[in-house]
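During the reporting period the student researcher (J.K.) took over the structure-prediction task from the postdoctoral fellow and processed the backlog of single-chain submissions. One of the processed entries is reproduced below for the supervisory committee.
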Amino acid sequence: MEYIKIRFDNEFNRLGSNLEKTIEDIFESSNPIFKLSERSWHPQMDIYETPDEIIIKAEIAGADKDKLEVEVTSKAVKIYGTRSEVPQVRNATYRLAEIQYGRFERVLFLPAPIDTEVVSTSYKNGFLIIRLAKLAMDRTHSIPIEDG
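J.K. obtained the following structure tokens:
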């Protein structure tokens, strides 16, 4: 059985990547020639939850499982990797080219805290499925007050 790499981390490097993304967006909006980093794309994802877990489903068809990585904290999940470009057909005139290739990254903030010790992943038919167990919510109970 092969495994998808999962890293557990306290913090993601948000400041650096957010600053780079903001600067890149400013320049790219005025002229697409200006790019600070390699082309990046964002796979489509679904997040849904049951009473016991949060499930993330990412559409990453064509990506090699060995080029996918997942990082998990109790509040967020970072999914990143690379989808290699298929060589273009020689002597062909492309009329439409919508499939995106290259590096991708998504950080998803979770709707509830999760137990980072109970995480599983699977990759089948181009979909990466991540199952995250929710932390048991604190239950309140009455405490009797004693005299004295």
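The committee noted the following: The beta strands are 5-8, 40-41, 45-49, 53-59, 68-72, 76-83, 102-109, 114-124, 127-134.
J.K. will present the remaining backlog at the next meeting.
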